[in-house]
Specification:
By secondary structure, this protein is an alpha+beta fold. It is built from three helices and six strands; from the N terminus they run ααβββαβββ.
Length: 142
C-alpha cells in the first residue's frame, strides 16, 4: 500500500474514533462531589433547569447566622426525573423542599442531590449518577 494511502487511511480512522469517543464521555460523581461530605438543606426553589445530561435545581437556604445562601444541586436526567413525577410544575419557584445529598469538593454551595423531600412529605430519588454512593447520606448540620 502506498505511503499516501496509509496516511489517508490512518487519518480517517483517527477522525472516526475522535468523533465516537466524546459522545460517551461523562464526568463521574467522584470528580466533583465528596462522598465524605453529606449535607441536608431545606430551602425555597429559585430555579429549576431540566437539561441533559444532568438537571440543576437552585434554592435559597437560610444559614445558621440568618443570612440566605443560594445552593445549586445536580439532579438526574430530565427523562428519569419525569418517570418519577418530577417536572417543572412539581418544583416551581417558591416551593419549599429538603434535599439530602453530598457537597461539592470545592466546598462551595453546590452539591449532588440523592433525595428530595417534596412539600407533601414524599421523598423522590433525584440523583442519577451511576457511581454515586448507594446509601442515603447521614447529613452533617450546616
Amino acid at each position: 500500500m502506498p505511503m499516501k494511502t496509509k496516511l489517508i487511511t490512518t487519518l480517517l480512522i483517527s477522525a472516526g474514533m475522535s468523533i465516537a469517543i466524546p459522545a460517551n464521555a461523562h464526568h463521574a460523581f467522584s470528580a466533583e462531589f465528596d462522598a465524605e461530605q453529606p449535607v441536608e438543606v431545606k430551602g425555597v426553589v429559585t430555579k429549576f433547569e431540566l437539561v441533559n445530561p444532568h438537571s440543576w435545581l437552585y434554592l435559597d437556604v437560610k444559614q445558621p447566622d440568618g443570612t440566605v445562601a443560594n445552593w445549586g444541586f445536580e439532579f438526574g436526567a430530565p427523562f428519569n426525573l419525569k418517570e418519577k413525577g418530577i417536572t417543572k410544575k412539581t418544583l416551581t419557584p417558591s416551593t419549599e423542599i429538603t434535599i439530602q445529598g453530598f457537597r461539592a469538593k470545592s466546598g462551595k454551595n453546590f452539591g449532588y442531590a440523592v433525595t428530595t423531600k417534596l412539600p407533601d412529605g414524599s421523598s423522590v430519588q433525584t440523583g442519577g449518577a451511576q457511581d454515586a454512593p448507594a446509601t442515603q447520606p447521614t447529613p452533617a448540620p450546616l
